[in-house]
Target: AAA+ ATPase domain-containing protein
Amino acid sequence: MEKLVLDIESISRLATRQTSVKEFATVLEQLDVYSGKIREKLKEPNLPQLHRDSLREIQKCISQIIKENQQTSKQEDNLPQSQEKEEQRERAIGQTIIKAGEVRFQDIAGLDVVKSLLHEAVILPVQYPHLFTGKVKPWKSILLYGPPGTGKSTIAHAVSTEANCTFYSLSSSDLLSSWFGESEKLIKELFSQARSNPRAIIFIDEIDSICRKRSSKEEETTRRIKNELLKQMDGFSRTSTSASPSDEPKKHLFVLCATNCPWELDTAFLRRFSKRIYIPLPDANSRKQLFRIHLKDVEMSIDDSDYDQLVDKTDGYSGSDISNCISEAVMEPIRELRDCSTWKWNDSKMSLSPTIKSDASAISLRLENIPREKVQPRKLNTKDLFHSISLNKKTVSQEETVRFQQFTEDFGQNG
Model:
């Protein structure tokens, strides 16, 4: 626990709420222990009067804080929120909104089954609402799970673009507000604002951080956040499926969550999801697509046959792992510029690029003697990529993959 010095000034400041609530909450957890130590100290017969008066003043402040906190807790729901607090939550919610149109299904390598499932769950109900009546209802809550770096957040963003939905994207850390008691209100207002849209998706990443299985060690704050989230998800689903008045268009509201640890989720929370879809590591074809997507704007000397070798060397790599390999590889031609001493003039680009010393048109120059705008690195080649792959190992173990597959057999669906 964070250590906090309690003196007259700091306690008085806390009593008047002139502090961050994180600090205030920390003090509240220590008050009983601290108050007991004061009482013991005051029993000492030889305690100087000045210290005795100071301790009594501190104890008076502690009593005031406890009394005010108890009154605030009882009346909090009935009191109007300050404009500042409301503006803070509005800004926080506004920051979760991501503009549509940035990512589409075509930008994502592989995951054809996942795309098909999400098309059925989100896009079809939005485009053909008259088909989803009576017993035919779309899935309103979907869990995307799988190893880190497999594109769960990206595909959630893409489905919002394809369905033209307002997309609210946040992680569990966003919900753990630094202001005491604000997390539940933030969740409530986030869902309320989403309901004001004709079509909206709320995406919560790393959901396992706040919705783990219940335990005696679970913090009260986390428990309250979890309960509020469950309550809002239930209400969200009812709002989405309930019939609208004839003169109002039907609302399309969806909740998507993502996790790398689905087995850690609370059972009650897991039941809330109509679909639990596994986002696996990319297969060979998907890895080839990933290389092509990431390298499409890179100047390189790579043949089609080279892609097969790259695919073979990245078996078991996630999409994020492959992205890291490419980021490392494209830096290699730039690193070589530092020590290059022979250059070749390129008429078409009006620039100088590194070349070998035996080149008849080679020019001897140091990098610092060339105008910066005239410097052009060589093209990327397969050697750069192979070297980068050898340095950047895969981050998902075989044991983890097996565990995801077992969870899918028991509770999920292959994507």
The first helix runs from residue 8 to 15. Residues 284-395 form a domain with the Helicase, Ruva Protein; domain 3 fold (CATH 1.10.8.60). The chain has a mean pLDDT of 81. The first strand starts at residue 97 and ends at 98.
